[in-house]
Amino acid sequence: MTVEVHWPDHLLTLEDWIALPEDSSRSYELVEGVLVVSPRPVSQHQRAIWRLAAQLEPQLPPTHGVLTESEVVIEPGPYPTIRVPDVLAVPTAGIDANLPRWDAADVLLAVEILSVGSKRTDRVTKFFEYAEAGIEYYWLIDLDEPASLTAHRLIDGEYELVAEQSGRATLDLAGTPITIDITALTSNRPGR
Asked: Residue 35 contacts by C-beta under 8 Å, 6 or more apart in sequence?
């Protein structure tokens, strides 16, 4: 039996976004009411997301936790912008409340792992959207060898570069030192 799905042919409101059918075969975001569809991340990208989250979670203070691929309302307006960063650091209270999506003002850190088809969006469009929305920390991870991390912090309403590193990096995240083994995001596990 084939189920026919009718996708919207108009600008979407938040209510329209919420009413969309669940579909894990692709990635979806909303930009000023326009539905943006892209392929799901491939295996190395997915592994890097998981490994980064596993490194971040135990280093955060108990007030914050890590989520992957969760919705963030960048602009609520009548035609909203909703992004889905690869990794987020958000308040534990919101995780405990089981929020379906996050207000950008509550996001401490957003991380995008660059991939073919999203590099310009991640480096330019999301860079300005996340800054304008008030997300304090924004990291970009490039998995091309050598894997690297570019970290920005929001200062006076604009992102400033605070680190650009490969290998191992120790970064300040709201007063908490966080060490990331960037090489481990792409390397084979030891002993294999």
From this structure: 7, 8, 12, 20, 28
